[in-house]
Design goal:
about 280 residues, mainly alpha, Serine Threonine Protein Phosphatase 5, Tetratricopeptide repeat, 3 domains, 3-stranded antiparallel β-sheet, 3 strands, about 50% helix, globular
Length: about 280
């Protein structure tokens, strides 16, 4: 079966070096062909996931035993809503590579096929301390979604109580985490708090778009609130976030007590790096 057309300007060097390295077990010509399809999948995934998936499948037909190929098929299958295929491919990637980097997509795919209980079971089977930070945050969001599927919003909120949910600084994962918290707070009927976190997510996303992607983090100054605008008892304050070395989902976070209508938040660049 012939794969989708590859533009002449796309070469194997357009694929990330780590991914190219996994193709060294293939013949030179096949490695070049597979790398070009994987590079196209990476370029298209955000704007045209269906075409990205076609390129991933083409790569898989020529190199189905390579971990990064199966990972790419799983990611693109998830992007087009084929959750059963995504699960199958990501399980294969996990078996080949021994890595849990895509555990959040696997959990979310279990949700996609209507199995939130199995999604939670799968998520709990992983040692989160071994995951990269982005994967750990993505897993918390997926687990929270599974709890919402089971109509357990209080538990959904606790899944997001992780040290990475810092209301004062924005990292690459912060907008999605802020928006996930807003969704859960809405489900709990805590609409003022939800609006604050949603606004915080918007501000963080806008600022992250403006910074040069490198080693910088962004500081989110605390949202101010005029006393006259504070609803009596409507927004309770949680304890500050901390990492005690245990499961990060158990760490409480600081809950903002601000109405989004009175938002005076600002975000500015900082050279301060994330500390463990």
């Amino acid at each position: 079966m012939r794969g989708p057309e590859l533009p002449d300007e796309i070469t194997a060097r357009d694929l990330a070096p780590a991914a190219r390295n996994e193709l060294k077990t293939l013949s030179k010509d096949n490695a070049e062909y597979v790398a070009r399809h994987l590079a196209m999948a990476a370029q298209l995934i955000d704007d045209d996931p269906a075409r990205a998936h076609e390129h991933a499948l083409a790569a898989s037909r020529s190199a189905g035993r390579v971990g990064v190929v199966r990972e790419t098929v799983g990611i693109t299958a998830y992007a087009v809503g084929d959750f059963a295929l995504a699960l199958r491919e990501l399980r294969t990637f996990r078996r080949i590579s021994g890595r849990d980097d895509q555990i959040a997509l696997m959990v979310d795919s279990e949700r996609g096929v209507g199995r939130p209980d199995r999604a939670l079971e799968l998520g709990r089977s992983v040692d989160r301390s071994t995951l990269p930070t982005q994967a750990r945050v993505d897993l918390a969001i997926a687990m929270s979604g599974a709890q919402l599927d089971l109509e357990q919003p209080t538990r959904a909120l606790s899944e997001l109580d992780i040290p990475e949910l810092d209301p004062d600084r924005a990292f690459a994962w912060s907008p999605a985490l802020f928006f996930a918290r807003a969704e859960v707070l809405d489900a709990l009927g805590r609409t003022a708090e939800a609006a604050t976190w949603r606004t915080r997510g918007d501000v963080a996303a806008e600022a992250l778009d403006e910074v040069v992607a490198d080693a910088e983090t962004i500081v989110v100054e605390e949202i101010e609130l005029a006393e006259a605008g504070r609803a009596d008892g409507s927004d309770s304050a949680d304890e500050d976030a901390h990492d005690d070395g245990s499961d990060p989902t158990s760490a409480p976070i600081a809950e903002p007590s601000a109405d989004a209508d009175a938002d005076a938040a600002s975000i500015h660049d900082s050279t301060e790096h994330e500390k463990d």
